Amino acid sequence: MFKRILVPIDGSRYSSRAIAEAADMAKHFDASVYLLHVIRNMSLPEEIMAMIRAGEVTQSRTEILEDSAEIILENALEKLQEAGVPDAKRAYLVGDEASPRPEHRGNRLDNLLAPAAAHGRKWNPGNHYIRGR
Question: pLDDT of 68-126, one tens digit each?
Fold first, then answer.
């Protein structure tokens, strides 16, 4: 039924739930999993900016956020592999989490299922999916 499962992740415990759910679905449907992290265009906390100005941190803001994205994606990939999901890919985008939308980039969403985390609300799997058409 579903051939691809898109899992938007942010490194939170909520995205860990989505990864676990996606792993179960991927095994059930023999589907590929695509992990996606969005680096929001926002400033770093003042504490980190002060460390950069003081020379304690030598990476740029972009490097820090990209390195963080890689760590988040690598951890998620490891969880999928531990759960027995062999076909998983990962990527990150820079921008607002609400855009760019996959359909605006010319990607087809046929046979795609995206589990979404509840962020503090009661987890109800039936209500937390985005299904492609």
Answer: 899 999 999 999 999 999 999 999 888 765 554 443 333 444 445 555 554 544 444 44
Q: Which domains does the chain have, with CATH numbers?
A: 4-131 (3.40.50.620)
74 contact partners, CB below 8 Å, separation of at least 6: 90
- Under the phi-then-psi rule, with left for phi > 0, alpha for psi from -120 to 50, and beta for the rest, what region is 64? alpha
* Single-letter amino acid, residue 114: A
- Residue 83 has φ and ψ, to the nearest 5°, of -80, -5
**Contact 11/40 with Cβ under 8 angstroms?**
no
